[in-house]
Amino acid sequence: MSNDTILVLVVITALAFDFTNGFHDTGNAMATSIATGALGPRTAVAISGVLNFVGAFLSLTVAATIASGLVSTGKVTLTVVAAGLAGGIIWNLLTWLFGIPSSSSHALIGGVIGSTMAAAGGSAVLWHGLVSKVVIPAVLSPVIAALIAASGTWLLYRITASLTDGARKHGFRVGQIGSACVVSLAHGTNDAQKTMGVITLALIANGTLAKGSNAPVWVIVCCALAIALGTYIGGWRVIRTLGKGLVEIESPQGMAAESASAAVILLSSTFGYSLSTTHVATGSIIGTGLGKKGADVRWNVAGRMATAWVFTLPSAAIVGATAYGIAYGIGGTVGVIIDLIILAALSGFIFWRSRATKVDHNNVNSEWTGGVAPEKVPAETAAA
Amino acid sequence: MSWINLTALWKIIVFGLIAGAGLPALFAGGLYTLSWGPKTARTAGADGGADSDVVVGGNVAGIVLAALAFLVILAAIGWSVYEIYTLGHPAPKK
Questions:
Q1: Please, which residues 263-282 of chain A have a Cβ atom closer than 8 Å to chain B?
Q2: Higher pLDDT residue, B74 or A354?
Q3: Which residues contact A207 (CB under 8 A, 6 or more apart)?
Q4: pLDDT tens-digit map of A195-227
Q5: Is B93 part of any domain?
Q6: ipTM score of complex
Q7: CA gap A247, A240 in Å, rounded
Q8: Which residues of B touch A185 (CB under 8 A)?
Q9: Taking CA A247 as the corner, what is the angle to CA A34 and CA A142, rounded to the nearest 5 degrees?
Q10: Which residue range is the domain that position B81 belongs to?
Q11: What's the domain range around A194?
Q12: Residue A235 has pLDDT above 70, yes or no
């Protein structure tokens, strides 16, 4: 009986994570379209939400990696999964507060690995799977994405050199919207599967599902809904950093970036790599800066992101391990419930802190002045 | 057990370049042929019509070529989504 209570709590926490995942990553698909004005901010997040929902139904390969490729499922208990999710959510919210596009996938994987290690020691982690399916792709994917995006950018400007600036801008806006839609679809496919994988892991841990099972349909539907809702709410802070902070982007660059991201994400998910869509999108955007003469990449912003990427796995792991420690110390269902109460309180606190420097659809495109919080503008100009 | 799946890596790079840079280039080619014709011709003068945002030039061959390019892109996207769906739902093992 008590196990079923924990299972329900774990599923709810997993869906909460999925929500933060959507919300944190809206920018990966839509930041450049919002920055170039190809789509209005609210329209962009609405389209992205719908396509994330659809994308979640496309594939199950990555879910299988998460469910069976990273930790030995025999050692995983429901408390471990709950604590791991707590680690992922906290790290996602913290990086969102600072407007850093860090990887939701790494936050999740880090959290689960931390809590698994706290529960069963380092031997319960499948290190080979972790390095070959998560760490190495994390290092390579932004580089590959940047290469493709830089080639694309260079080609696009070459081919359309005879067009007037106005015609180019108009024409590529259409292409940019199309490619951003494909990225949203890819995001739903790749990222929603991660939560499906975790819930499947929990169901296996509880004995509800047999080892090696695929995600059941209700899990797929719930995850698709959670990620779509999160996307629709829109993580404006991250959108701003990606769209305005890294490179000042024109519509051909936007199209090149989105196409490169879509191609890399979709190809990798067919191979079962649980890539970080965030790393790919960031790599692509930097690539478009490299592929166009005279475009400046703000390397200090890129450096801050890269630092956050390195810390994501270990930091989420520490939070995950701590959460497991608390739940284990108290014991039983009560331990898990107290964990989740702490999680909710911390989330509330972070949200409250974010209100002080609010970024939303009104000021997401304000001039970049060195930080995620735009300088305060008088109400009349902000509304214009 | 190797650390890097080289086969996957080169496939991702090659197909990534084809789809991620080639398809947008095809789109750019479409925009280019679409611009053929009198309506987008830059008029001589101080501004030279450089601020014009007319995309369609009016040349029929150009429009047909552009339409072909855009159709190929749509077909490629549709085909990839179908492939991903098929690959992503393997028949259950017996």
A1: 263-264, 266-271, 273
A2: B74
A3: none
A4: 888 888 888 878 888 777 778 889 999 999 999
A5: no
A6: 0.83
A7: 11
A8: 81
A9: 95
A10: 6-39+54-88
A11: 2-383
A12: yes
Phi/psi for A119 (5° steps) reads -85, -40
Distances (CA, A) of A169 to A33, A195, A249, B39: 12, 38, 11, 17
Residue B55, helix vs strand vs coil: coil
| Whether pLDDT at A115 is above 50 | yes
Q: Which tokens sit at A223? A: 């995850």
> What mean pLDDT do residues A12-37 have?
87
Can you give the pLDDT at residue B42?
A: 53
Q: Which of residues 149-188 of A touch B (CB under 8 A)?
A: 149, 151-152, 155-156, 159-160, 162-172, 175, 178-179, 182, 185
For chain B, what is the mean pLDDT? Answer: 79
Tell me if B60 is assigned to some domain: yes
**Stretch A167-194: mean pLDDT:** 88
Question: Chain-centre distance of CA A221, in angstroms?
Answer: 19
| B17 belongs to a structural domain | yes
Give the pair of three-digit tokens for residue B27.
């789109």
- Binary contact (B85, A58; C-beta < 8 A): yes
Q: Is A71 left (phi over 0), alpha (psi -120 to 50) or beta?
A: beta
Could you give the number of structural domains in chain A?
1
- Number of separate domains in chain B: 1
Distance from CA of B64 to the nearest CA of A (A): 16
Q: How confident is the model at residue A383 (pLDDT cuts 50, 70, 90)?
A: very low
> Do residue A59 and residue B28 have CB atoms under 8 angstroms apart?
no
* A297 pLDDT above the threshold of 60: yes
A150 contact partners, CB below 8 Å, separation of at least 6:
A287, A288, A290, A291
